[in-house]
């Protein structure tokens, strides 16, 4: 055994991976997973639109795969012995169960790895980052906006995050009381999958705002208004999985915090169990030090 | 215990799809209100107006509730030449929507 191999490797700089091998990172794997689910929904949508409403062939609407539809119809399903609110089916309940069980075991990983709307926002933010990196005037423009918003933005960001719990309560209780999806017209996901109908709804405006907002703030819909993210984050609190920052190996370079699409202060935390964490593991991938930031399995609620 | 990020990603996909395919394997799955869990076509119930859906046709409603198509069209000032195979939601206008139709049919059901 060499002297080097018995030295605690925590804190050492990770070896830099270049070329073809750089494609075999969990970040690339995550993008492939996100792309696959988005492509599946696009395929379902295309088949459904091509078949048409009056078709004798029954095709799945993309709405049938929405997990939040399952939460909206859950009360009616229980209270009315198997009835559903309009536009929801048994598949919505099953996909909701899948998303919540995933959250229970693996935190809000549905949001970070599967949700197509999260993926689209990620893509817009990546495009924004590329523009800022490639074009000096664009970079200056974004920096100027960031500087102007500096005193107010952190405060707004902190309090706007609570809005998603209000949306969650409104959408679920509204569906329970009125028996219809009160959230549907305001849902950017619903607006996106029915965009071919060319109807101007509040949801389409919110979708537009979310996509434009993604140029400036990563995942604005997820941070501030997504009711599924809200419930997923709360359920994820019971998960045995958490992120751990090893202070002894960490150099406080803040690369992890800059990499976090949800704007969490990773570099100051000991364990990351925030309800807003989408478990994308960008921070783990970007961290330049061995063992400074790792995914751990432990006792639920204890983060040990 | 440390979890490799790759393994974490595989676990996420496995749990999510595993639950969905598990339910599908035991028959708990339906992607449309037009068919039930066993794949049989859903028809409006003659006793419950709430079973009428927008994708149903005039003809289906007419047959289920025993009301002539012409009566439905005239009750809502709809063109008399409207095809009986037209889905209800494609006929929505200022004088006709699903709620109005349900209320009207409910009144018809209550008449002796």
The rough form of chain B would be described as elongated
Number of strands of chain A: 3
Strand content of chain A: under 5%
How far the N terminus sits from the C terminus of chain A, by CA atoms, comes to 31 Å
Task: Please explain how this structure is put together.
The complex is a heterodimer of chains A (304) and B (112). With 304 residues, chain A is mainly alpha-helical. Chain A contains 15 helices and three strands. Chain A has helices spanning 3-6, 26-51, 67-79, 90-106, 109-114, 116-134, 136-149, 153-160, 163-178, 188-193, 202-213, 220-224, 227-236, 255-259, 282-286, and strands spanning 241-245, 271-272, 293-297. A three-stranded antiparallel β-sheet of chain A has the order 2-1-3, with no helix packed on it. In chain A, helix 3 (67-79) packs parallel to helix 9 and helix 9 (163-178) crosses helix 13 (227-236). The longest helix of chain A has 26 residues, at 26-51. Chain B has 112 residues and is an all-alpha fold. Chain B is elongated, with a radius of gyration of 22 Å. The model of chain B has no long low-confidence stretch (mean pLDDT 86). At the A-B interface, helix 2, helix 4, helix 5 and strand 3 of A face strand 1 and helix 1 of B. Strand 3 of chain A pairs antiparallel with strand 1 (2-3) of chain B.
Features:
heterodimer, A: mainly alpha, three-stranded antiparallel beta sheet, 15 helices, 3 strands, 4% strand, disordered N terminus, B: 112 residues, mainly alpha, 44% helix, elongated
């Amino acid at each position: 055994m060499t002297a080097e191999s018995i030295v605690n490797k925590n804190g050492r700089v990770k070896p830099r991976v270049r070329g073809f091998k750089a494609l075999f990172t969990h970040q690339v794997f995550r993008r492939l997973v996100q792309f696959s689910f988005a492509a599946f929904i696009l395929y379902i949508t295309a088949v459904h639109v091509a078949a048409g409403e009056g078709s004798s062939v029954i095709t799945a609407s993309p709405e049938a795969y929405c997990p939040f539809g399952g939460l909206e119809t859950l009360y009616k399903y229980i209270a009315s012995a198997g009835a559903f609110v309009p536009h929801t089916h048994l598949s919505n309940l099953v996909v909701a169960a899948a998303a919540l069980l995933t959250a229970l075991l693996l935190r809000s990983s549905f949001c970070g790895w599967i949700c197509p709307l999260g993926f689209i926002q990620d893509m817009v933010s990546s495009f924004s980052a590329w523009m800022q990196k490639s074009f000096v005037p664009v970079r200056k423009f974004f920096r100027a906006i960031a500087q102007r918003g500096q005193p107010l933005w952190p405060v707004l960001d902190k309090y706007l995050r609570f809005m998603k719990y209000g949306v969650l309560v409104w959408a679920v209780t509204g569906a329970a009381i009125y028996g219809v999806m009160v959230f549907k017209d305001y849902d950017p996901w619903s607006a996106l999958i029915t965009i071919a109908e060319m109807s101007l709804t509040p949801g389409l405006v919110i979708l537009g705002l979310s996509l434009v907002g993604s140029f400036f703030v990563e995942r604005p819909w997820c941070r501030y208004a997504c009711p599924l993210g809200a419930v997923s984050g709360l359920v994820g609190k019971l998960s045995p999985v958490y992120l751990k920052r090893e202070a002894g190996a960490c150099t406080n370079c803040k690369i992890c915090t800059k990499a976090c699409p949800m704007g969490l202060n990773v570099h100051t935390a000991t364990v990351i169990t925030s309800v807003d964490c989408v478990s994308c593991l960008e921070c783990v991938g970007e961290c330049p030090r061995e063992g400074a930031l790792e995914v751990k399995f432990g006792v639920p609620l204890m983060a040990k | 215990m440390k979890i490799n990020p790759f393994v974490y990603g595989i676990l996420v996909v496995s749990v999510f799809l595993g639950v969905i395919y598990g339910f599908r394997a035991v028959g708990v799955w339906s992607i449309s209100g037009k068919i039930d869990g066993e794949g049989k076509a859903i028809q409006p119930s003659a006793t419950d107006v709430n079973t009428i859906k927008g994708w149903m046709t005039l003809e289906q409603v007419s047959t289920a509730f025993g009301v002539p198509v012409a009566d439905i069209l005239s009750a809502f000032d709809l063109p008399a030449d409207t095809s009986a195979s037209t889905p209800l939601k494609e006929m929505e206008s200022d004088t006709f929507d699903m709620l109005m139709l349900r209320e009207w049919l409910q009144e018809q059901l209550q008449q002796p």
